[in-house]
Amino acid sequence: MLIKNGMVHDAIQEEPYIADILIRDGKIQEIAAGLAPQADEDVIDAEGLSVYPGFVDAHSHLGPDPYAQSGDKDYNEMSEPITP
Questions:
Q1: pLDDT at 83
Q2: pTM (global) more than 0.85
Q3: How far is Cα 33 from Cα 40, in angstroms, rounded to an integer?
Q4: pLDDT for 29-57, tens place per residue?
Q5: Cα 31 from Cα 40, distance rounded (Å)
Q6: Of the candidates 31, 27, 29, 22, the residue with the CA atom closest to the CA atom of residue 2
């Protein structure tokens, strides 16, 4: 898979930049501008979109809270120590 022309936010460069992201066998192989897809490769046009290669959210408070009556609150998941 090749993600083309996205605004890349990574943990290396201080400022975001426009580049392509090459993914093979479920792993990021290369991030660079002007990468060419193989003949049978899926291509995603990410022009105007932000992409975060390798980003893992280690902790967040996003998601509906089933304990809140209104459904508009976001809190910790209380049923399991690790949940996706």
A1: 61
A2: no
A3: 20
A4: 999 999 999 999 999 999 999 999 988 76
A5: 19
A6: 22
Hey, which residues does 43 pair with through a beta bridge?
Answer: 2
- Give 62's strand partners: none
Write the CB contacts of 18 (distance below 8 Å, at least 6 apart in sequence): 5, 6, 7, 8, 33
Backbone CA torsion sign across 31, 33, 38, 41: positive
Query: pLDDT of 55-74, one tens digit each?
Result: 876 666 555 555 555 555 55
Q: List residues bridging with 4 in a β-sheet.
A: 45
* Sequence-ordered list of residues with C-beta below 8 angstroms from that of 75, at least 6 positions apart, any chain: 61, 65, 67, 68
CB 61 within 8 A of CB 76: yes
